[in-house]
Amino acid sequence: MAPKGKNRNDVLEEEFFLQAVVIADSFNVRFGPVTYKKPRALLPLVNIPLLDYTLEALAISGVKDVFVFCCHLGEQVREHIRQSKWQEGGSQMTVTALMLDSCRSMGDVLREIDAKSLIRSDFILISGDIVSNMDISLVVKEHKERTHGKDKSSVMTMVYKVALPGHRSRSKEDAMLLIEEGETKRLLHFEKSHDKRKIKIPTEILLEHEDIIIHNDLMDCHISICSPVVPTLFTDNFDYQTRDNFVKGILINEEIMGYKIHLSIIRDKYAARVSNMQTYDAISKDVIARWTYPLVPDMFGSSHKETIKYGRHNVYCGEDVTLARGCDLQKDVVVGRGTCIGSGSVISGCVIGKNCQIGENVKLRNSFLWDNVKIASNCDIDTALLCSGVQVLDRVIINKGVILAWEVVVGPDVTIKKGTQLMSEAQKDDWDDPNMSFGEDEVRSESADGEDKEGQEPVNYGSKSKAYPYKQNVDSEDEEEGVVLDQTWGISASESDDRASEEDSNDSYEEDDGGSEDDEAERGGNLDDEEEEEDQVDSSLGFIPSVCMMERNTAFYQELVDTFVRANNEKITEDNLTLEINSLKHAYTVSIEEVIHSLPCVLLDMASHEQTLPVSVNDRISTFKKNVQLYSSLLRKYIKNTETQLTLINGLGDHVIRQSDLRPRLPLLLNTLYDVDVLSEGAILRWYNSTQFPSVNESSRHAFLKKLSQPFITWLREAEEESSDSDVSDGNN
Amino acid sequence: MSNPGECIAVIMAAGTGSRMTDLTHQCPKPLLPMGRFPMIWYPIRSLEKAGFSDIIIITRQGWHDQIQNALSVDGIPVRARLEYIEIQDSDEGGTADSLRLIADKVKTNVLVVTSDLISDCDFSELMAVHRKHGSSVTALLSQLPTTLTADTPVPGFKSKQRNMAAEKISIGFDANNMEHILYWKAQIDMEDELIAFSKKFLDRFPCSRIQSAWTDCHVYMINKFVVKYLQEKRELNTIQGELIPLVVRKQMSTYITDSPKDDADMNSPNGDGKLKKDLIDFAVKFDNELISWGKNLSLTSNTFGQSKDAPQKDLIKCYAYRQTSGFCVRANNIAAYFEACKQMPRLITKFVTTKKSDELPNMPESTSIKPKSQAGIVGADCMLGECVTIGEKVSIKKSVIGKHCKIGDKVKITNSVIMGHVNIQESSNITNCIIADSANIGDKCELIGCIVGQNQSISTMSKYTNEVLSNTSQMMEVPLE
């Protein structure tokens, strides 16, 4: 009987000591210049530090014991906790801050936990930037029932929230495909999916399990319940860096180690992670719209000894707010204590921190102002983040996606381009990246070097400005995981809008294009004589072949070919090659369209570059294939949306028209690009089906290219019938 | 007299029953006895119950008369008007080819039923699903009866059961609407190590549930436009194997309305037929015939609130009616046939109306039982045909016995199916067997798990286990004693 009694004690003890591990570092630089001075966990979300949301969520769930692991700028986190309410007497929850300066990943933290054997029972592993109002203890209970019941081998229960693709608080880089076993909720397969056109899953999953659920409708809450064995597993497998590594490892070695991972899916509660600017924006709006109740400004603020009044249209005002007559707080606005807003200012969808000063006739939309921000009169700010101490002088226009880091001063009378990120100090080569307390300094500074050179041209941010451009460093750690996203906040949002309205914008786009074509048609005679002759031979085309979509800058083109050949010979890395291409673009002052227009031709011409003898078509095609494979990711960097894809196809079309021997190969060339995901079927079909052309010549040119590409288009349309490898293939027609 | 919703009903009865081994050697598969009726009577009955009064039966050449004769025998109630269409013996066509024969008759939808379906499923439920969703193709799915598992002993096979997985189909449903079929692939076709799902598919159907426990009952409600498409696509042979997976896949098709006009111009003079019309084109044509503006005004579009990449119109839709209770078996192999037969005593009431069930008890009055054979020896889970003669001390359990059988004294029959005019002599012991028409079993035979073919004579004292005893094999295997 003795062991039984002991067991009961164990259960009691576990229930009394629900433990949580908070990782107060993200180990990445998604927030660019912002996390330079403050760790992400302390960034204010609706005027309250993120870490407080996480700790509050744990307190709601009845957690007794919290370990906060601080890495980057950990001292600030520790100080924050020291002054928080958790340190007061009578606090239900003990919060312990632990400094782990040497840790470079979540894996390191967990190994540290194992080394210090801090954990005795099941624990909650949570990131320090979670906003949640769910009761995590329910999931803990679920996990315990599982581990004490039928499935003792479960080591982790991960919390996911239902969010359909395209949901705004769903971080794009976290997009993933999960396969769950129907009844048991066991995780069978886990794959990041954000950059893939097709997702392949092992057939045996379908064969071995009678009932599986394929989820593409979930977002990761970064909350997981771990069995005590998890830190040990991290120690045993020192290559596990992130939780994703761990999950993959467990799934792959399931048969060897016998561990399982389960899912818990929440539908009606809120849980989301602030992982980048896009989610920061979305979650802020959710807090304002009270989805996270009770973690809303008017209630949560009281725990920070502030009184915030909640008014209609989700307008929240702190104490001592001065609103001049005639200023208009439209909706979804939070104004912090001691802020003054001048008359005639119109504000909607904004969070304004404490002691800010906003002048007259300022327009603020969807922006985030932290504490002590000063905005002079007649400014127009749309979708921007202004950190504490930023000053915006008179008549400054700030476009979407701008981030002004700590104490930046801009203006007066300037327009900040969209997507600009500014800091108040110059970015130094030996700048010790605060967000990456880990190595790879050399690689980073090198590339930063390159970027600086490129960005040498002085950009004017106003006569009284104190601003220096920030360049995102190439984060090698991230690249390994393949989660580099080029999208920045605000711009990415508009990009996805573009995608949405593709159908509508279709016509207008082509008209625009048509305008430039006309111009080019006039200058069409400047082409290489050789090629022109070749074209003239083939007069049966029914149109003047020299009418290309875009005139080619021969010097630039030659240089571009040389660059690629050199890059190929000297094995220059892709990033540096990108830099070289960009500098060429500047040197020859060509448009980005022309660069894209030229890229496929360059890849084709590389074969014939060095040889003096004419190279056979087959050789060129095979070189092209090889190169496309090699440079596919580079191509994808340039070719991001449908418009650029159309430019690329037109570039290819022009090249094919110039070189008649390539004409029959057009379908093959298109297919090659399609195979590496540079071209999407949507773009190809759109190009194929485009009908509006400014001139007869243009439309006959298009008809000719269409005829050439016919076999490929037919194949594309019938792909789903014929392709054997893809089961649920893309729609056609 | 008309069919519901101007839908026509077709029974596919042209299958040769190649998986039934020697049982179908002399008897067309649709006429294999099952309980008191031939197999084909059951789907006819199911259709009648759903309100169909005109049924087309597609059979093989020469079977027409046999089927007609079998169904016109007294005591077999058939009220629907049956129309027979024969296919030539030389045609090795599949079900899709058969469907093409009647394509011109389809006005709205066609309900295709296989002749070997023994089910108490209500087809009107299936039709309701079809109409509710405006489906292009609706299939009847059912879970295998729990009694039919891999462990069930099957006559004639030494191994307990053949590979069941061979016929399993992985069917994906939309998790939000489990009637919506998104994915369809026979597991036997899964040769590659990886299965690819396109991002487009996953974005459009973010949560799909793939299950392989469902049996496709080969009952389909098919829309007219799909039949029209089938008429053009001559290369499709079977409904289940080719047409259904195709339609399921084509759900992802998007129709681009501004498709260039010169496509048609290019196509006709060249005459290559390269740009054959796609299923979606038929769907669009069909859709235009409907009041499409009404659909556009509807707020309940399936794509509402989902990814913008999703096409605006769902023109091709594939749904399923999932039967979760009741009985449903396709008697297309020995195991299923055996199981269906043994279920008959229990099921028969579902096929004959309650009034008539009084007239059709499981033991007709014409049964003659020798006085010493005590009552109760013929179990309640048995069914006897007409004019069965049963000797003394006979024990019959969980078995179905056909008409005009003669069962000698002290015979034990357990868990077996015995067709008509079988003569079983004294003291034989028959367990887990199927004995075909007019077989003759000698004295003191012991047959366990055997199939006895038509007109076979098993000599006295024989003992067989798990064997097929028929004309072809007899020469070699049955020793003369």
From TrEMBL, chain A:
<dbReference type="InterPro" id="IPR016024">
    <property type="entry name" value="ARM-type_fold"/>
</dbReference>
<feature type="region of interest" description="Disordered">
    <location>
        <begin position="425"/>
        <end position="539"/>
    </location>
</feature>
<feature type="domain" description="W2">
    <location>
        <begin position="550"/>
        <end position="726"/>
    </location>
</feature>
<dbReference type="GO" id="GO:0031369">
    <property type="term" value="F:translation initiation factor binding"/>
</dbReference>
<keyword id="KW-0396">Initiation factor</keyword>
<dbReference type="Pfam" id="PF02020">
    <property type="entry name" value="W2"/>
</dbReference>
<keyword id="KW-0963">Cytoplasm</keyword>
<feature type="compositionally biased region" description="Acidic residues">
    <location>
        <begin position="500"/>
        <end position="537"/>
    </location>
</feature>
<comment type="similarity">
    <text>Belongs to the eIF-2B gamma/epsilon subunits family.</text>
</comment>
<dbReference type="Pfam" id="PF25084">
    <property type="entry name" value="LbH_EIF2B"/>
</dbReference>
<dbReference type="GO" id="GO:0003743">
    <property type="term" value="F:translation initiation factor activity"/>
</dbReference>
<dbReference type="InterPro" id="IPR029044">
    <property type="entry name" value="Nucleotide-diphossugar_trans"/>
</dbReference>
<dbReference type="Pfam" id="PF00483">
    <property type="entry name" value="NTP_transferase"/>
</dbReference>
<protein>
    <recommendedName>
        <fullName>Translation initiation factor eIF2B subunit epsilon</fullName>
    </recommendedName>
</protein>
<dbReference type="GO" id="GO:0005085">
    <property type="term" value="F:guanyl-nucleotide exchange factor activity"/>
</dbReference>
<dbReference type="InterPro" id="IPR003307">
    <property type="entry name" value="W2_domain"/>
</dbReference>
<dbReference type="InterPro" id="IPR011004">
    <property type="entry name" value="Trimer_LpxA-like_sf"/>
</dbReference>
<dbReference type="InterPro" id="IPR035543">
    <property type="entry name" value="eIF-2B_epsilon_N"/>
</dbReference>
<dbReference type="GO" id="GO:0005829">
    <property type="term" value="C:cytosol"/>
</dbReference>
<comment type="subunit">
    <text>Component of the translation initiation factor 2B (eIF2B) complex which is a heterodecamer of two sets of five different subunits: alpha, beta, gamma, delta and epsilon. Subunits alpha, beta and delta comprise a regulatory subcomplex and subunits epsilon and gamma comprise a catalytic subcomplex. Within the complex, the hexameric regulatory complex resides at the center, with the two heterodimeric catalytic subcomplexes bound on opposite sides.</text>
</comment>
<keyword id="KW-0648">Protein biosynthesis</keyword>
<dbReference type="InterPro" id="IPR056764">
    <property type="entry name" value="LbH_EIF2B3/5"/>
</dbReference>
TrEMBL record, chain B:
<dbReference type="Pfam" id="PF25084">
    <property type="entry name" value="LbH_EIF2B"/>
</dbReference>
<dbReference type="GO" id="GO:0005085">
    <property type="term" value="F:guanyl-nucleotide exchange factor activity"/>
</dbReference>
<keyword id="KW-0396">Initiation factor</keyword>
<dbReference type="InterPro" id="IPR051960">
    <property type="entry name" value="eIF2B_gamma"/>
</dbReference>
<comment type="similarity">
    <text>Belongs to the eIF-2B gamma/epsilon subunits family.</text>
</comment>
<dbReference type="GO" id="GO:0005851">
    <property type="term" value="C:eukaryotic translation initiation factor 2B complex"/>
</dbReference>
<dbReference type="Pfam" id="PF00483">
    <property type="entry name" value="NTP_transferase"/>
</dbReference>
<dbReference type="InterPro" id="IPR029044">
    <property type="entry name" value="Nucleotide-diphossugar_trans"/>
</dbReference>
<comment type="subunit">
    <text>Component of the translation initiation factor 2B (eIF2B) complex which is a heterodecamer of two sets of five different subunits: alpha, beta, gamma, delta and epsilon. Subunits alpha, beta and delta comprise a regulatory subcomplex and subunits epsilon and gamma comprise a catalytic subcomplex. Within the complex, the hexameric regulatory complex resides at the center, with the two heterodimeric catalytic subcomplexes bound on opposite sides.</text>
</comment>
<dbReference type="InterPro" id="IPR005835">
    <property type="entry name" value="NTP_transferase_dom"/>
</dbReference>
<comment type="function">
    <text>Acts as a component of the translation initiation factor 2B (eIF2B) complex, which catalyzes the exchange of GDP for GTP on the eukaryotic initiation factor 2 (eIF2) complex gamma subunit. Its guanine nucleotide exchange factor activity is repressed when bound to eIF2 complex phosphorylated on the alpha subunit, thereby limiting the amount of methionyl-initiator methionine tRNA available to the ribosome and consequently global translation is repressed.</text>
</comment>
<dbReference type="GO" id="GO:0005829">
    <property type="term" value="C:cytosol"/>
</dbReference>
<keyword id="KW-0648">Protein biosynthesis</keyword>
<feature type="domain" description="Nucleotidyl transferase">
    <location>
        <begin position="9"/>
        <end position="141"/>
    </location>
</feature>
<protein>
    <recommendedName>
        <fullName>Translation initiation factor eIF2B subunit gamma</fullName>
    </recommendedName>
</protein>
<feature type="domain" description="EIF2B subunit epsilon/gamma LbH">
    <location>
        <begin position="374"/>
        <end position="459"/>
    </location>
</feature>
<keyword id="KW-0963">Cytoplasm</keyword>
<dbReference type="GO" id="GO:0002183">
    <property type="term" value="P:cytoplasmic translational initiation"/>
</dbReference>
<dbReference type="GO" id="GO:0003743">
    <property type="term" value="F:translation initiation factor activity"/>
</dbReference>
<dbReference type="InterPro" id="IPR056764">
    <property type="entry name" value="LbH_EIF2B3/5"/>
</dbReference>
